[in-house]
Design a protein that fits this description.
Blueprint: H1 3-10, E1 19-23, E2 26-31, H2 34-38, H3 41-51, E3 55-59, H4 67-76, E4 84-90, E5 95-100, H5 103-121, E6 124-129, H6 136-146, H7 149-165, E7 177-182, E8 191-195, E9 200-203, E10 231-233, H8 239-242, H9 245-250, E11 257-259, H10 261-280, H11 289-297, E12 299-301, E13 308-311, E14 314-320, E15 328-334, E16 339-343, E17 367-371, H12 384-400, E18 404-408, H13 414-427, E19 435-439, H14 441-449, H15 458-465, E20 476-479, H16 482-490, E21 494-498, H17 507-515, E22 522-525, H18 534-539, E23 544-549, E24 552-557, E25 561-564, H19 574-583, E26 590-594, H20 598-612, E27 615-617, E28 624-626
Parallel strand pairs: 2-3, 5-6, 9-10, 10-11, 11-12, 16-17, 17-26, 18-21, 18-22, 19-20, 19-21, 22-25, 26-27
Antiparallel strand pairs: 1-2, 4-5, 7-8, 7-28, 8-9, 13-14, 14-15, 15-16, 23-24
Helix pairs in contact: 10-14
The structure holds zinc ion.
């Protein structure tokens, strides 16, 4: 069926329609009739109920007030405390993105602010929250996105055309299969290929930084054909799930990449950070800045729970995974309800300071593909309360001793969790005065956290919306330069959050070198420590270590106290994995387990099979499995 033709026939008055465009599976009608642009509720409501698609009317770009005048006019309007900070005009699509400190003021009172802007300027409005922490990199990402307006209008329309104009039939010959391209019976380089007779979609495209021999997914598998790949969907911004993505564009992928907005922003930041680090250490680069830009050009963001067709026969919905900001589980409705798959990515089935636990209620799920990082029989993490108390004791003791606490962290996730925890302790007077150092790019990631409160739990979200933003507490101090780091080291007690989490690079290493020989100091490891990393060595009791600093190998005798804390993990422990499988509705018929060490995967898989009487699978990388 030709939807554009149907719409033209449905809206009898042809003069109302200037152009009809797709934006993926949404439909946009451009009109030159201002009255129709401003008042179309009735017609559009009927059209939506007929087509079962989202339909929007925008004013034809030729009738828009020019950008400069529009900006002046909007700035003169009185929106009280909204504090508009920036404008991003996307002329080909007649959309202006307005960044405001309190965007809810513009959308409140039945969108009075937005409607006023539409009426007086002709622009359709998208609202965004201003980053309350200034970050050049966040601004640069915004600029890259709006640099490509024309290209994006064309791309979104072409995706729509391909979705609506291809025919498929779910008959006896129809099938669904997956291929394990990475992160099966190990952790790292996550990638799952989902295929049907007419579609090929990749879920995650990660790298394995701890395995230089096999760092990338098995894109050499015969069924993987980059020219036939219709879409990539990314669960979250950790590099083991998205670090290969820019390389896909380098090797000729031309399709879209879907994720949540925070995932898009944070992953871009981490990609650029990776290039920065790798070029400093002369490592071979998997991709360069142009590939990252190309990826951004093709990025499409989705909120949770919005059903979106991404190919003629695959429809996805993203659900909260509770792992890090914007982390999503991907639900795939394949062949118009023929088969349903849920791919968890990394998930936490427990509430944290910033996020709600992963979701468990779905309309249909026949196959569940789940992670198993802590799926071993003995992988029980201590409770959150115990963990917090332990951490508080370490910090209090060290500070009382006039020492410093170094916490090596990944760029996104634990760092922000710990910031909120420390802020809370200080607010309630549970922790003595001490500066909290948030080093380097951690601050940029935190800036992104302040932009997306809608992805957080209600407590943190409400504090950010009410401008009682915990991340802006004066206890946090941002350090960037080596000079600032030296000042911190020369100063009094401090809690230092710095990357990387495994002490295998980043500023945490130079902090460690400066602090590790003084018994007054403490090092607290809070994330998974990869084999062969400095973090793993000291975690296992190694106290004589060699560290490369500025190209020179130096020896250190560690006398600072070293602690490992597991309870802050963003992954579900064994009990939480079991509870998740128990609580998920409807119960899947097939459970495929990946993203874990082989032994852990086998333990979890055999337990689930017995306890829940479902079919379980633990594929090897390069295995393919027919789901139906
Ligand atoms: Zn992760």
């Amino acid at each position: 069926m030709d939807i554009k033709k149907e719409i033209t026939e449905f809206i009898a008055d042809k003069s109302l329609i200037e152009d009809i465009n797709f934006e993926v599976s949404n439909i946009v009608i451009y009109t030159k009739n201002r009255n129709f642009f401003l008042d179309n509720t009735e017609i559009i409501r009927n059209l939506v109920s007929k087509e079962k698609k989202r339909v929007e009317v925008r004013l034809d770009p030729s009738l828009l007030l020019n950008e400069k005048e529009a900006e002046e006019k909007i700035r003169k309007m009185d929106f009280g405390e909204a504090h508009i900070t920036d404008f991003w005009f996307d002329e080909p699509r007649s959309i202006v993105t307005i960044e405001a400190e309190r965007p809810e003021i513009l959308s409140g009172d039945r969108k009075a602010g937005i409607n006023k802007i539409k009426e007086e300027t002709g622009w359709s409005v998208i609202l965004a929250r201003s980053p309350l922490i200034k970050s050049d990199i966040v601004t640069a990402i915004r600029e890259m996105l709006y640099d490509n307006s024309k290209f994006r209008r064309k791309m979104l329309n072409e995706i729509g055309e391909s979705i609506y104009n291809s025919k498929f039939e779910v008959d006896d010959k129809y099938w669904v299969r997956i291929s394990a391209l990475g992160a099966f019976r190990h952790v790292g380089r996550s990638a799952v290929l989902v295929q049907t007779p007419i579609s090929s979609v990749l879920l995650d495209a990660g790298v394995d930084v701890s395995n230089p021999k096999e760092p990338v997914p098995r894109v050499d598998a015969p069924e993987f054909d980059i020219s036939k790949l219709a879409a990539v969907v990314i669960t979250h911004s950790h590099l083991d799930h998205c670090g290969f993505l820019p390389a896909l564009y380098k090797y000729g992928y031309k399709g879209p990449v879907y994720s949540t907005a925070p995932t898009r922003d944070v992953m871009t930041l981490l990609h650029l950070d990776y290039i920065n680090l790798a070029s400093r250490t002369n490592s071979k680069l998997l991709f360069d800045v142009d590939d990252v830009k190309n990826m951004l050009k093709h990025s499409i963001t989705l909120p949770f729970h919005e059903v979106t067709d991404i190919t003629p026969d695959i429809r996805i919905t993203l659900h909260n995974a509770g792992h890090i900001l914007g982390s999503a589980m991907i639900h795939l409705n394949i062949g118009n309800g023929f088969y349903n798959v849920l791919y968890t990515g990394d998930f936490k089935y427990d509430n944290s300071k910033t996020l709600n636990r992963a979701e468990t209620q779905f309309e249909r799920v026949e196959t569940l593909i789940m992670e198993s990082t802590y799926g071993g029989d003995s992988d029980t993490q201590p409770s959150r309360t115990e963990t917090e108390q332990f951490f508080l004791d370490i910090i209090s003791k060290t500070i009382a001793n006039n020492g410093k606490v170094l916490v090596p962290v990944l760029g996104v996730g634990r760092a922000q969790e710990l910031m909120l925890l420390i802020e809370e302790w200080q607010r309630y007077g549970l922790l003595p005065e001490a500066t909290v150092i948030v080093d380097g790019m951690l601050w940029d990631v935190t800036a992104i956290y302040t932009v997306y409160p809608e992805f957080m739990n209600s407590e943190t979200r409400n504090r950010i919306i009410a401008h009682n933003n915990p991340f802006l507490s004066p206890i946090f101090k941002h350090t960037v330069s080596e000079e600032e780091r030296q000042q911190v080291l020369a100063g009094g007690p401090a809690i230092i959050l710095a990357t990387s989490g495994m002490l295998n690079g980043g500023p945490a290493v130079s902090y460690f070198a400066n602090l590790c020989e003084d018994p007054k100091n403490a090092v607290v490891l809070v994330s998974y420590q990869g084999v062969g990393t400095l973090g793993r060595t000291i975690q296992n009791g190694g106290r004589e270590v060699d560290i490369e600093l500025n190209g020179k190998l130096r020896h250190f005798s560690v006398s600072a106290l070293v602690y490992s804390i597991e309870g802050f993990s963003g992954h579900s422990d064994r009990k939480q994995l079991e509870r998740f499988v128990n609580d998920i509705r409807p119960r899947p018929r097939k459970i495929i387990i990946g993203h874990g060490e082989e032994g852990k995967i086998l333990e979890l898989s055999s337990y689930i099979r017995k306890r829940f009487r479902v079919e379980t699978h633990a594929p090897h990388v390069l295995d393919a499995l027919r789901l139906k």
